[in-house]
Fold UDP-glucose 6-dehydrogenase.
Amino acid sequence: MKIAIIGLGHVGLVTACCLVNWGHQVYGFDQDEKKVKQIKEGVPPFYEPALDQLLQDTLASEHFLVHSTLTEAISQCELILLAVGTPISTEGKLDLNQLWQALEDLVSLPILPPYLLIKSTVPPGTTTQIYHRLQDRVEDVICHPEFLRQGNAIEDFQHPNRLIFGLHHEDSQAVIQQLYHPFQKKSHLFQYCTPASAELIKLGANAFLATKISFINQMANFAEQVGANIEEISIGLGSDPRIGPQFLQAGLGYGGPCLPKDLTALSTLAESPLLASTTQINEQQPHFLLQRIESELGDLKGCPIALLGLTFKPNTNDLQASQAMYLAELLLQRGAIVQAYDPVIKDTPCKQLQLAQTIEDAIKGSKAVIIATDWEDFQQLDWSLLQRFRISNLFDGRNLFPYKRAQKLARIFRITYHSVGRPTIRVE
Ligand SMILES: NC(=O)c1ccc[n+]([C@@H]2O[C@H](COP(=O)([O-])OP(=O)(O)OC[C@H]3O[C@@H](n4cnc5c(N)ncnc54)[C@H](O)[C@@H]3O)[C@@H](O)[C@H]2O)c1
C-alpha cells in the first residue's frame, strides 16, 4: 500500500520504518525541517533501541520518502496516518493545535486519500468532528490509538497485544486488513468499535496504568509505617490474575510524555476525583524519598549526592515529566550538590545539575547515592565501588534490588540500604 504519515515523532517515525519493513511504500511528512534533515541522514531525532539501524535499512530500501511540506504525492496514497503531537494545555486539556493545523494543510490539497487514521491521542468526539469536516472528500476517518512504549517501540509495533479501530463505516475494515496484513490470521487482535470508544480506550488505558502505580505507591508508603514489605505485597497482589503483576512496582512514580498527560486529560474531562488523587499521589512520591534522605543525612546544603538516572524510564532519552529530574530539582532547591549520571543523557535544561561521564565519576566524593531510574546498568551496580568511595547510604528509588539480595550486599559492603515500602537495611 502507499501510505502517508504526518508527524515523524516517536510514533510516526517508528510506524513508518515498521510499515516499510512490511512491504508498504511510505511518504513521511514533518513540518520540522531540522528533524526531516536528520531523518534523511539516517539519524533518529530521539533515542529508541535498534531504531538507528532500522531507519538506515528503511531509507536504503527507497520505500520511505521524507518531506517537510505536504506534497501532491499524498494524493496517490491509499491512506494517511496522522501522528502529530497533542500535548497537555495549562487547563489540563489535550492541545489539538498541531492536529487542526495538519488538517488545514490537508484540506488545501486538491485530492485526498480515501482514509484518514488518527494515531494521535485525542479527546472523545474529535475523530467524528474531523469526519464531518472531511465527509464529502474521504471514505472514513478512523481513530486508531497508539499504545507503543518508548524504549520498546519497535517490538510493540511488531507484536501488538491489540489493535483498536474506531470506525464510522464497517466497510473500512477492508483497508485496515490490508494495512496490517501480517496479522490477517490473528483476528483476535482487532477490535472494531465506535470512534468515541476508541478515543476513550486510549485515555482509559493510560489512566488505569497510572492509577495502578499510584495505588502500589500508596500501599508502599503505608507498608513502611507498619513494617511490611511492598515487594512481598506486590507478589501477593499480582498473583491474582484479576490484578496481574505488571505496574505493581513501587518507586518514585510514573512520568514521561503519555501517562501524566493522558491521565490529566481524562481527569479534567470526566471531572474524576479518583484520577485527581492518582496525580496527587504521584506528585508526592519524590517528596517521600527526599524526606528519607534528609532524615538520614540532615541538612542537605552543600551536601554532595550522586543521582543515578535522569530519564523518566530506562531505554529512552526522554526527560518529560521525569520523576528523577523532579527529585534532582528538589535536592538542588535544598542546596545539595547533585552529580548525576545517566547512560544516555549528556545535557539537561537544568544548569545547576552536574553531569558525570561514568557511574564512578558520579559516586566519587558523594555522601550518598540515589537510584532514580531503573536502567539495567544500575541493576548491575558494583557495590564495592560504594564501599571504595566510602558511601554509607544507598537510596534505591526504584526498588531495583530484590530485598534478600540487597540484605546480602548491604552486609558484605557495609552500606545502609533504603528503598520504597521496604524496611531499611542497616548494618551495625
Ligand atoms: N511517544 C509515545 O510514547 C506515544 C505513545 C502512544 C501515543 N502517543 C501519542 O501519539 C501522538 C504523537 O506522539 P509523539 O510522541 O510521536 O509526538 P512528537 O511530539 O514527538 O511528534 C509529533 C511530530 O509531529 C510534527 N508535526 C506537528 N504538526 C505538524 C504538521 N502540521 N505537519 C507535519 N508535522 C507536524 C512535529 O514536528 C513532531 O515531529 C501524540 O498524540 C501522543 O500522545 C505517543
Observations:
- Residues 6-12, 29-32, 35, 83-86, 98, 101-102, 105, 119-121, 146, 148, 150, 257-258 surround nicotinamide-adenine-dinucleotide (CB under 6 Å).
- The CA atoms of residues 211 and 278 lie 5 Å apart.
- The chain has a mean pLDDT of 96.
